[in-house]
Predict the structure of Serotransferrin.
Amino acid sequence: MNILLISLLGCLVVALPSASVQKVKWCVKTQKELEKCKYFTTKSADLECVLQPSTIDCIKSIEKGEADAVTADGKHVYIGGLKPYELRPIIAEKSKTEPCYAVAVVKRGTQFTIKDLKGKTSCHSCYQQSGGWDLPIGRLVRDRIIDWDGPDDMPIEKAVSQFFLRSCVPGISKTTYPNLCSACQGDCKCPPFRPCLIAFECMKRGDGDVAFICHGGIPESERQDFQLLCKDGTRKDVEQYKDCHFGKEPARAVIAHKDAVTQGIYSNLTQVPHSDLFSSDAFGGKDLILSDSATGLVELPKITDSFLYLKQDYYEAMHALRVGSPPAPTPDRKIQWCTISHAEQQKCDSLQIPRLECRRASSVEECIQKVMRREADAFAADGGQVYIAGKCGLVPVMAEQYIQQSCTDSAEASSYHVVAVVRKGSGVTWSKLEGKKSCHTGLNRNAGWKVPDSVICGKKPDCTLYKFFSKGCAPGADPASNMCELCKGSGKEVGDESKCKASSAEIYYGYDGAFRCLAEKAGDVAFIKHTIVGDYTDGKGPEWAKQLKSEEFELICPESPEKTFKYSEFAACKLASVPAHAVVTREDIRDDVVSMLEVAQTSSDGLFKSVGERNLLFSDSTKCLQKSTKSLEEFLTKPYMDMIEKTFETGQGAPDLVKACTLDS
């Protein structure tokens, strides 16, 4: 007995250190920030302060594990996201102050566009500031208006001095780059106050043809006399700056290691009184640790990285400033198609379409991010995924058509019916559905999740599919949740990393996977497309389905809660009709993707056929792809989008990728 007690006490002593709360090491850059940080530690006992000479040194300290977090502006959020650091923004400042939109201001009546800037004179608010240098110069390089091959060729400053006839770039070295100071009146130093107004006055008095400044630097009383140069070669009135700019300066953000437990960092900050967080007067400085103008803090979705936080315009401008202009697009450029499984990659490679190259991702959400980052160009997705992609700035450009005679330009876009399928004789009806086991095509997918979530929980407060069903398989859900319990993974007994993954590595993923989940009696109901039962039974399905008979399956629906229907009676018993799957891409390569696919579907017999697995790249029931010029709202329709957004209110909330893409940083 005594030996057992001593052993237990020994274990307790060993366990005690690991149970203690780990302190958050906050990195500061100046003595004044250190004083403010030390004051924070009197309010939050789990906070420590680490002093480094600069934000870059703080980033290096976090990467080495010597510090945990630092507050950074947009430029340092970008740098922190690069290798080897790979830090991510975890908390953002909220502010009532409108951020800087970097604009190019010219006098009304002048005739040149942004594409005619070479040889003009320029005025800039300040060197290496967002409005006057980083965003406009970065974007001009990105768009090849300033054609710069990168720092190995020459410094960016030299390329700019050769591009403009004369410039005033306050803060740059007058000795090293005299041409970038030749339009200045004075010593070419960055003014401590109102640099945008000084740059505006430089252009207004004729020392420059264009002023690169923040939009707020244009006096309201004079705005009617000036215009903005837009990236697309047009001009707009000054008041339209939100539609005609080089990028928007993001709010300052707290950045940390990509694997950091953000809740501890956030909770430490929120222990400090609000009035102390956003005030620097007592420490003799301005914007110490956090901005004095901030009104609060926002904890960011875990999926947020530097690209999603900074947004495309800002990120690409910073990237171009670092590496130079991208290669000029060619008429026969390859289209990079995003695949989400080994089987899809094999099919994509086997198509041998001249302009098609295949790029691998682990999920549709990763494909969305790859297309945003220009690491891939296109992929096909269902309506729920098209919605997410659309919220991230991508566009649907071609839709699957499932009726052969409708494969004409004038035909109405296809749709399909979502049905709830049960095994015949199981006793499962709509009225007896609660508490049963469910099979879903995937989390946030059309037929498998969005529609049943809307139909079951749409008008019930506090209802979620997680609560409604006892357990299920919804690939892409939290692996620890009941919606991954029924998933089978790759079929391994133990150590299966594929379990509940949102790709065909999970046997129960997609239409065929959800139906297989039902057919193998893992679940009691499957939410799938109306054609699946017919496609997978009576000898037409893959090997696992060879013995299945269509008559073994029935439909249930809320309109007839006590009845079941034949699988072919989907017109009388369905949950909803939803938009067809669509090809998603970026707006800037819409035409290239469409032209490649139009050729491919006439020259490749295998585009809509899958071997070994079903619905690879496209739905096997597709007869053709039809070009769509509709906006996201027109393509999905308002009722359908309302349905999706309603499920966010009653379910687990919007997907993290939607939150990150729609975040106004």
Remarks:
- Residues 432 and 562 are 8 Å apart (CA to CA).
- Confidence is low (pLDDT under 50) at residues 1-20.
